[in-house]
Amino acid sequence: QQTVRRSFTLIGVGLHSGEWETVRVCPARAGEGRYFVRVRIPAAAALAQDNLRLSMRLAVDDDNGVITCEHLLSALEAIGVDNARIELEGSGEVPIVDGSAYQFAYECARVGLVPAHADGSTAEVPRMAWRPSEMITVRDGDAFVQFIPDAVTKLTYGVDFTYKSTAIGKQWESWTPTEDGDYVDLIARARTFGTMQDYMAYFRAGYIRGGLEQCALIANGDKFWNPPMILPNENARHKILDLVGDLSLMAEPGMAGVPIGHVLAYKGSHRLHAKFLAALAA
């Protein structure tokens, strides 16, 4: 198991709150896992909320929760930060930064990773991972998330926004960490995305109050309002980024959350991801 060598802090605007938010990632002991501190909120699937729209939200009760945590958790999971105390100042939202996980991944690399030890011990603690033996599928209309047993971890994601924007259109992307390259190079920089019409509707409804141009790739009809794309199939790669973050909630304290096997998703959402986590844990 690993943790960060020392703490790092990021300050930015919350996508939903529109307020300045601060997140501080601190070292933690082996077996503590990743957890948020306003009150202690474990990064666990059991706390994922049902009424998810644009972001993952974890809550222990109506007054104590954390929102927009998927990009940070994605970076921690993929880079191998198994144990971390994550302190939040502000409304309880993780800053959206540039809409990707790159800044979180960069900060982890900057401070470095070290083995996480248990109390009073210098022995290294093994990192375990899920390896389900049966196929699992959850659906919502034509959207689905499926687990297929395999010897390695592989994530595949398909998006289809043709009915909303041909600029996004249909995209498929697949990433096998042991074969294709590093998360930081292939996945972390992919930004969140959507259509101009959807973002304006969310803004008018009060779901988002933070910046748009700086933190999302916005499609308007057959072109992007703020091009260019940073990565090929950036939209599908961002869905893989989100999936890694949501799967990280399956981690037992100090363990990996993304299972060994093939996770295949099509037209998914945080709500469908949460339903898939519940099926995996059943």
Automatic annotation (TrEMBL):
UniProt cross-references to InterPro entries, sorted A to Z: Ribosomal_Su5_D2-typ_SF (IPR020568), UDP-acyl_GlcNac_deAcase (IPR004463), UDP-acyl_GlcNac_deAcase_C (IPR011334), UDP-acyl_N-AcGlcN_deAcase_N (IPR015870)
EC number(s) from the headed UniProt entry: 3.5.1.108
One cellular-component annotation, GO: membrane
EC category name: hydrolase
Cleavable signal peptide: none
Superkingdom to which the source organism belongs: Eukaryota
Single biological process term from Gene Ontology: lipid X metabolic process
A Pfam family that the UniProt record links to this protein: LpxC
Involved pathway(s): Glycolipid biosynthesis; lipid IV(A) biosynthesis; lipid IV(A) from (3R)-3-hydroxytetradecanoyl-[acyl-carrier-protein] and UDP-N-acetyl-alpha-D-glucosamine: step 2/6
Alphabetized Gene3D superfamilies for the sequence: lpxc deacetylase, domain 1, lpxc deacetylase, domain 2
Cited SUPFAM superfamilies: Ribosomal protein S5 domain 2-like
Record's keyword terms, sorted: Hydrolase, Lipid A biosynthesis, Lipid biosynthesis, Lipid metabolism, Metal-binding, Zinc
Cofactor: Zn(2+)
Catalytic activity: a UDP-3-O-[(3R)-3-hydroxyacyl]-N-acetyl-alpha-D-glucosamine + H2O = a UDP-3-O-[(3R)-3-hydroxyacyl]-alpha-D-glucosamine + acetate
MF terms in GO: metal ion binding; UDP-3-O-acyl-N-acetylglucosamine deacetylase activity
Family listed: Belongs to the LpxC family.
Role of this protein: Involved in the biosynthesis of lipid A, a phosphorylated glycolipid that in bacteria anchors the lipopolysaccharide to the outer membrane of the cell. Lipid A-like molecules in plants may serve as structural components of the outer membranes of mitochondria and/or chloroplasts, or may be involved in signal transduction or plant defense responses.
Protein known as: UDP-3-O-acyl-N-acetylglucosamine deacetylase
